[in-house]
């Protein structure tokens, strides 16, 4: 069980990059440990109180000498992984947690179901051409289902999913007490925050991609697919249409990542993850409310929510890059501001959970 | 054992303190200088703490619940900022030198905390991934060795949610042993363990210390650490009231002879004539400081003098009695 080859975890991102000949002496010493210690740890084979500690001691001595060798080799041959590789390893660990969490998987499934449901409803009920909206266009072209689904979901359900992951990021670790062990590992506060944001961004991208993919599949299955007629009236090829879908997905993901930064900032303020999630979602709803009040029209460009559905610029010919660029700048601004707030709070905070 | 009463001079007899101000950093794994933590409400959790933990020692950090032990440990590990004063861990100032020091420190702070939906093994991998200096190529071996060492190898694949309290505590200790460590900081490591588990933790700590690793172990149970520590520090309401090698702490309190006899007056006068000091008489019992006398000689003299000796013992004060003298209250009482 303890040869070096078996010490290479299949799930670890960095093993593939390690040269096969790079036999780490520390690993060798560590790898021989388990055989010596098997069955002789806390639960020694003997149950008598007098002899119960003896096997543990013997095992401890073997392990101890191995630990000593490791120290020597660690000082003699520094085997410190590079900072970016270590960060990638932590991010991989984060992603593993995020995408293994049943709650997050359930949210992704719900997100995938909405376009399917939307497609089925339009297929069954559709054919009402009175209002030439994005949704009714779906009946004519399956590709339009992606845009319709994204437009529908980007306002509330996608933000909700992202808020759950972002709000949980720091507050969840603090509430569960795992934050103190991450920080004494030491994960590093700034580094941990950066990795958490990267994790939320990846989740946002995956969530948007899940919506797009589910909508594409449903669209292809239920509707005729052909050259796409854009909002501006001109027609583009299917390949070009798919490219536009990529742009839409990327833009929506950027908007959701910006919300992720907001959620992360809120998450550093509390040890109650549900509080951070709720506060972020309330913020989104509040922002939506503000944007429908006509008297507050001048405020609209400053609201994050106003820019989320601006990906319809990708449905014009040529692509309305000015609006989308401005949207991306707003997302970047929110990310920088909220990221700074999160950092300022988190780097100086007393961890008392 | 508990019959010895502390003299009024208990405080004066406290062991000589190591002066952290002058102690060279290279000889100490942990140094605190005037470490103070005042919470927002104005409550002072740790008050002007001067601490020196010699390299290679097993340092028992003792005090009742609420005496500031965990707050001190949180400051040592850079989790909270001291209000004033500072500390060094493995020669690095904290929290500035955290990235250098902490990879060489294994820590168990305020009980275990893990991801309930992950297995024990996956949990250890998670914490290992958080350490930027750990080598991912050896993680399987190191996790396996750590689990083995605490006797959790068989439960490695089980979800943490299904672990018992004792198993959780063991997993937390395994997490502290994930890499080669120069210092182990264990906050109440035997909480939730049965007597057998407690004994095993003690033996584990001895093994780790035998490798030259410094162990800083906090506890509110004296008997638990008395047997394994080389040094102790005693906290009382945020202040360190004593610290030093355990032998010195005990040395301030001389062994006494205790004679159980119905002839207390006769025994007391004989002990006085023999030159024993601090002779005290209680109900059917006489005690005195042993000094340079041999117990067997005293016993023979008593019998020769016609004293009916029902019991004879030499009592050395346990640490607990020393502590009661230092803290002036029962040990497990909330401060």
Termini distance of chain B?
A: 26 Å
Helix content of chain B: 25-40%
- The percentage of residues in β strands of chain A lies in under 5%
- How far the N terminus sits from the C terminus of chain A, by CA atoms, comes to 38 Å
- What characterizes the major β-sheet of chain B? 6 strands, mixed
Helix content of chain A: 55-70%
Gyration radius of chain B (Cα, Å) is 24 Å
Mean pLDDT of chain A: 79
Would you mind describing this structure in some detail?
The complex is a heterodimer of chains A (353) and B (335). Chain A has 353 residues and is mainly α. Chain A folds into two domains: 25-76; 83-348, no CATH class. In chain A, 65% of the residues lie in helices and 1% in strands. Chain A has a two-stranded antiparallel ribbon with strand order 1-2. The longest helix of chain A has 34 residues, at 189-222. Chain B has 335 residues and is α/β, with parallel strands linked by helices. Chain B is 31% helix and 25% strand. Chain B has helices at residues 69-76, 98-101, 120-130, 139-149, 165-176, 195-210, 222-226, 246-251, 264-274, 295-304, 319-327, and strands at 28-38, 44-54, 58-62, 84-89, 92-94, 105-108, 183-187, 214-219, 231-236, 239-245, 256-260, 277-282, 285-289, 311-315. A six-stranded mixed beta sheet of chain B has the order 6-7-8-3-9-10, with helices on both faces. In chain B, helix 6 links the parallel strand 7 and strand 8 (214-219). In chain B, helix 3 packs across helix 4 (139-149) and helix 4 packs across helix 5 (165-176). Chains A and B meet through helix 1, helix 2, helix 3, helix 4 and helix 9 of A and helix 3, helix 4 and helix 6 of B.
